[in-house]
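Researcher: Please generate the 3D structure of the following complex. Treat every line as part of one assembly.
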Amino acid sequence: MELEKDVSIAIVGGTGNLGQGLAVRLAAPGIKVIIGSRDPEKARTVVESIRKASGKEGIEGKGNQEAVREAELVVIAVPYEGHSKMVTELRDQIGKKIVIDAVVPLKKGKPFIPPAGSALLEAQEILGTETPVVGALHNISAGDLQEPDAPLGDVLVCGDSKDAKERVMGFIQKLGARAFDAGPAANAYIIEGLTGVLIHLNRRYKSKHASVKVTGIGD
Amino acid sequence: MELEKDVSIAIVGGTGNLGQGLAVRLAAPGIKVIIGSRDPEKARTVVESIRKASGKEGIEGKGNQEAVREAELVVIAVPYEGHSKMVTELRDQIGKKIVIDAVVPLKKGKPFIPPAGSALLEAQEILGTETPVVGALHNISAGDLQEPDAPLGDVLVCGDSKDAKERVMGFIQKLGARAFDAGPAANAYIIEGLTGVLIHLNRRYKSKHASVKVTGIGD
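Model: Done. Output below.
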């Protein structure tokens, strides 16, 4: 599915590595990327440096609330420690917009399962069932995203809204990655946890680029 | 690490698809594979048909207890429903042998987390800390194993004994698959759960071969 041309995407926690990488890949003509930060000034500074480094226009920096208010799709890319508080604070601005939750519950770099069952289910609990929450983008390397020509791993997309998943998969193809429908929201703990395995692989095999590819489907 | 030439491997629940696939791939000269079943007669019948189909010698069929007693490495490949009971029944025969737990907790084809935290941790709890339990082989397609020339997905290997993991990784390379040290036993719920995601992908995209490859490491 092709993403509508004039879509706007807010990246909450967008000044982090994942957020910056997403911004670089998405800032194509017609996609408006709004990097959100607790500190609007910091968001603007980061955007300035992304523009200089990548030559990409179409990126703005704002406070998180303003970023979410102005966007159609919302990516949550904060560290897990701030996840619950951030989603709660943004509930009104999010409304019924599609939320892409890319957050991985980690404690000292190791994966764990939060009380709600996963970060995705935690967000869904806070936002209510009428807000479509989709899990995605956990497993791709932030460093690879920031290199416009680096090959990306596949993106496993989960959630209980089929329509929202379809729209998010279209959005991910814009990043230059393959997206797969990886099942219901109940599968999120696996996809989030997989990032913990990739962190281990990077440490164990001295890499920064560990990622996964699905095989046996369409190849 | 190269596997010792004259090793013997018992496959508990070896008459199932995964067990038969492993037997076909492992029955190379010098590796003795013992397919175990609750019913020794069934094990022998399955071995006979594998021998006819593959021309491979070096496979035997026995009751589970006898199979484990005679082998150096033990693969557990039973459906999750029978996992706890089977491991308990075989505790004495297992002793301090390396156990490769390939079991995936599934309910109606969907992954879940058992009370112990994972199938691996359940086995470790039953067998005690002196038995090295390693999680592996969850994510490769049983059908692909049975085709001797089919390419296999990567195998994520986890467990708390570094030595046992090394030995199991050597064993997996004999199957024609790449093996990666995917971290401690605590990561098993992720690797087991990943099979649930692959089951979803197979259904969603009408395949029987969904598997994963690690990228960004050594390539």
